[in-house]
Amino acid sequence: MTRGRRRGVRRPPLPVVLVAIVGAGALFVLPLASLLVRAPWASLPDLVTAPSALTALRLSLVCSLSATAASITFGVPLAWLLARHEFPGKSMLRGLVLLPIALPPIVGGVVLLLALGRRGLAGQYLDQWFGVRLPFTTAGAIVAATFVAMPFLVIAVEGALRQVDSRLEEAAVTLGASQWTVWRRITLPSIMPTLVAGAAFCWARALGEFGATISFAGSFPGETRTLPLEVFLALETDRDAAVALSLVLVAISVAVLVITGRYSVFGSARARDSRDSRDSYGDLVGGGKAATPGAPARSER
Amino acid sequence: MTLDSALRLRIGTLDLDVSLSAEPGGLVVIVGPNGAGKTTALRCLAGLQPLESGHIRADGNTLDDPAARIFVAPEHRPIGVVFQEGRLFPHLDAADNVAFGLRCRGVARAEARSRAEGWLERIGLGGLGSSRPAALSGGQAQRVALARALAVGPRLLLLDEPLAALDATSRVEVRRELRDSLADFDGVRVLVTHDPVEALALADRIVVVEDGQVVQEGTPDDIRTRPRTRYVADLVGLNLLRGRGAGDRVVLDAGGELAAPGAGSGDVIAIVHPHAIALHRSNPDVSARNVWATTVESLDLEGDRVRVRLTGPVDLVAEVTPGAVTDLALAPGLEVWASVKATEVQVSPA
Fold first, then answer.
1. What is the pLDDT of residue B349?
2. Domain range spanning residue B325?
């Protein structure tokens, strides 16, 4: 299915276009433009290469990428269980996994402190038994970022796993594929576009993480003071530095989201195509009455 | 290999109880209306659906036996499955689709790929190894699916309405491929179909399933000439005449000719529905092109119709109303004229 304008595709109604333009302009274009206009372009190179800025940038990248890796490691199996298996307490578990999306991040930090802090429910044993202390360490900042970011990955991957054509997995099994082979060669390639998009979103959320980090991990330079925290502090003392660092965050986020967004849009377009052809297969048990293969989903005039 | 199975389970409203067995090289065809449980029976054999009771044994090896707590997972069964919708993997090209099963069995990538290319060559799709399924026609895709199932050397080949989702042209193409590929297959084949020509032309044994139960079982000729239910009569209770196409007529193998528009050329099967045959006491002066003098062999009342078996230059089964039997005073031994309009004859490539 080709994208882009086709003959006969209707134009969107004017009022819808106007409202959308106003909304997008006021909320997204204007602030971004202001940032570009007000950015201290002359001193920018110095501001973003200041030692504190570079330290914060490095720390931000380490924390957000680690949090993304942790989210994939734990989130994909979790999504698999939620999508494919029935077990008691499943809806409760799903609710808990998604809770960080709704929770104010600062509250998330408090919760983490209660659980994993030095006197926390589990944290005291981590400390006593293994000598592991999470609060106010880089590891803690990664935990905080994972806490707020992983739900985005889980929600995306669970949805993708539900959409996977289980009939292809069945076909693979009849060809002698073990469960692991089915996952590796059939399921994973099918969900890959969504997994990439979900990971990008998860990463973007981890990069921007502020509230849970500051309440759980604090703000120690080089340890837990990530770029957003650096921006927050700079806002009090050096406004130009805050703007410059904001610009860096915006640039990184836009770059990654545009690149993966393109990939994921491509992916979902493909998924749409395969759904269309699946419809034309006709129903398995009913059989016999298949629609015309490749019939366009919407009639063209 | 030999197959011996008793498939029993309940899913939703379906209460399946079907026994299937076959000798080496045998082809069992399961026919039946939608929702009768044909596909479910096939899924049981494949291991995609565990039995509730009964058993599946292949060459004496038990694949499923709930009472003995034995269940062999599908990936460990010696099977090949061709699904109605092909189910090719969309992200793999044709050769990798065919190579998939070999890769699962530990064949090295390059070796599997080259054997897959060999299979594609064999089914006449040699140049299409690197095409994605989306770029293949329906018929080509289904042939690739057949090659994929055969590539692993299955002993039990399960075909679930492999032609049903295809248009008429691809159907002819795939049917020919099926026939060629299956001719030298020495394992057991189980085919689910709606297509009477497919069933009658290919089967060693036909099992008719309705509402999850076997209502009739036998050789194609048994079933064709003595259908036991209305459904069977309508589906396969047909006159099947083999011959060679010669333009607008078919030269019958059994002798004689049959006028039929669009008979084409080559080996064909002419199908004449019993209700298309008209019976007359004297040589009819009708527009029908096909007229034969025949003798009534037997009459079977079946519901509101009577099946009249006729012998003559061409053996036929006609279907008439009880009223017609009275009017014509039909009785075994009576000589009658049978006529069929040329347009009522359906010709299908054999």
1. 76
2. 237-349
